[in-house]
Amino acid sequence: QLQLVESGGGLVQPGGSLSLACAASGFTLDHYAIGWFRQAPGKEREGVSCISNTDGTTYYAPSVKGRFTISRDNAKNTVYLQMNSLTPEDTAVYYCAADIVPPYTIVQAMCVLGSFGSWGQGTQVTVSS
Q1: Which of 2, 23, 68, 129 has its CA 20 to 30 A from that of 14?
Q2: What are the b/e assignments for 99-116, b being 16+ CB within 10 Å?
């Protein structure tokens, strides 16, 4: 059974950093593209960052580019999201998701559309002073 478990969320002051982890079980992560998404109260879900499993291609939403970094450790079957220079606008529940990249599809499109089949339960990130 494919399972994703996020961890690392919490409360941080503006300007601070957090590192989220997405641990996979029941499948080998290096066969899948992985995405991080977030949803704040009253807002639509947003694709934050995604990474391909084939060539390491990454995508970042304009709102996080230059502040967030996605990486994967296939040996640990885990994907990370390093978040720096956090602002209150980054407050949301963060989810990781996994799926196989279909033929003729780029991971950037999957990220923008949220086209992932397997999702974790989410971890809360709150940025507040």
Answers
A1: 23
A2: bebeeeeebeebbeebbb
